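Progress against Task 2.4 (sequence-to-structure conversion) is shown through the following example record, which the project officer requested during the mid-term review.
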Amino acid sequence: MTLVKKIANDNGSKSLTQLASRIAAVMQFGASAGADPFAKVKGLLENMISKLEKEADEASEEKAYCDEQMSKTEAKKSDLEDDVEKLNVEIDEATSASAGLKKDVKVLQEELAALAKEQGEMDKARADSHAEYMEAKKDLELGLGGVRKALGVLKDYYGGSAASASMLQEMQPTVPMHSSSGGAGGSIIEILEVCESDFAKNLAEVESEESDEASVYEKETQSNEVTKTTKEQDVK
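Structure tokens generated for the chain above:
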């Protein structure tokens, strides 16, 4: 009983402490009843040994199961750590790619802003140039119309005077004709014809310049629109 108590105390076992108490009870009451107390104690000890061996077997099985599960868990942990490492690499690559894309988008947005500004300046320049063309065309057409009207009047006048003078010459050969007037009229007509030619030439030139500028503007506008669409898609 003393030995069992010592073992119970050394191992902190409640089962052995209870066994010691039962042994003490058997020794006390078994001896008083005339029975062999040691047979009963032996039975208690054998039962305790069987119980301890069973618990040891169960503990061994449980340890084996735990070891197996721990091994599987370690393997799974290792696999998961590999996955985490791979994902971290992918995250780093994606983060780097994202930073690069953001930089590219910033550049594209700056280019789009510059393109919009350039197109705006082109639109204003084209509008101003067209307004100047319309004003110049109006003035030139007005001048050309005035010169042509004057030429018509002068040609009718001097042409009519020349015919009348010719008829008078035939009818009255002795009547002197004032050829200086016809010469002066011819000079004026020549000057006006030069003016007419200049007006017509200038009008043709401004119309040609307007057509060329409008064509260049349309081509550049279309090119800018294509560039804008492309860059907007790149931003997306």
